[in-house]
């Protein structure tokens, strides 16, 4: 069965990377969530996609130049005005604590260290995952493949996955070079050959960001490991319909 991960929670219908969005993805029947992690000036891990808080909050400035206390004061309702004053930027610890209460629910943590190098982000992320005994339910991904090599060196208990935008030559072979076991390509960079060869080489394949129902069905037919979507409720509904037809 193809699993469904809510992209930044249920980012198509709720403020992205907020607890409201994550809870909505879970309630919609998603198998897991995907989220993004940056680091504050005082070394705390917070869940936000951009290197700055400008796009998704009422604040401004680089995450890495702000203290956690400053970030927690921000409104993270983004374009969803109905949530103004109701949603904040969560810490990674807060999200993991919640996931730990949900049997079998999965979490994909994307390290956002491709542009800004956050010292010790790998160690701090892994320590938090271990704190909540979520090693077997966590995937760490990044566009920074050097960072994934470091994660693999730090622990072999947590799955790592390479993120990439354009079609790679034999990604099922390259992924082994960085010590990872999963590929998370943009869905444009995926075809049946890549899916089949990834599975043949025991490499998990989870394309992003899959929002069109036809493409969701195609990935189900090709037995993708999973896909990541802004609309988990839509994906869950399509999966139910597809399973009824089988």
From TrEMBL:
Chain coiled-coil ranges: none
Organism encoding this protein: Metabacillus halosaccharovorans
Residue spans crossing the bilayer: none
UniProt-listed InterPro entries: GP_PDE_dom (IPR030395), PLC-like_Pdiesterase_TIM-brl (IPR017946)
Superkingdom, natural source: Bacteria
Protein name in UniProt: Glycerophosphodiester phosphodiesterase
SUPFAM superfamilies: PLC-like phosphodiesterases
GP-PDE domain residues: 2-239
Signal sequence bounds: none
Lineage of producing organism: Bacteria, Bacillati, Bacillota, Bacilli, Bacillales
């Amino acid at each position: 069965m193809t699993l469904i991960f809510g992209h930044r929670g249920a980012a198509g219908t709720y403020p992205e990377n907020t607890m409201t969005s994550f809870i909505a993805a879970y309630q919609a029947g998603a198998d897991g969530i995907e989220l993004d992690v940056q680091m504050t000036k005082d070394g705390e891990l917070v869940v936000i996609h951009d290197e700055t808080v400008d796009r998704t909050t009422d604040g401004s400035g680089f995450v890495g130049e702000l203290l956690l206390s400053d970030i927690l004061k921000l409104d993270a309702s983004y374009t969803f005005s109905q949530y103004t004053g109701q949603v904040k930027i969560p810490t990674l610890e807060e999200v993991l604590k919640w996931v730990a209460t949900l049997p079998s629910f999965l979490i994909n943590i994307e390290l956002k260290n491709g542009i800004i190098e956050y010292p010790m982000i790998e160690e701090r992320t892994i320590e938090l995952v271990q704190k909540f005994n979520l090693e077997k339910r966590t995937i760490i991904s990044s566009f920074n493949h050097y960072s994934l090599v470091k994660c693999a060196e730090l622990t072999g208990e947590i799955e790592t996955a390479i993120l990439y935008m354009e079609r790679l030559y034999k990604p099922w072979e390259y992924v082994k070079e960085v010590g990872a076991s999963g590929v998370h390509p943009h869905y444009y960079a995926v075809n049946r050959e890549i899916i089949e060869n990834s599975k043949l080489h025991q490499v998990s394949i989870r394309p992003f960001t899959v929002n069109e129902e036809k493409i969701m069905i195609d990935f189900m037919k090709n037995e993708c490991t999973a896909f990541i979507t802004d609309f988990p409720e839509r994906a869950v509904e399509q999966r139910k319909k597809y399973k009824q037809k089988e």
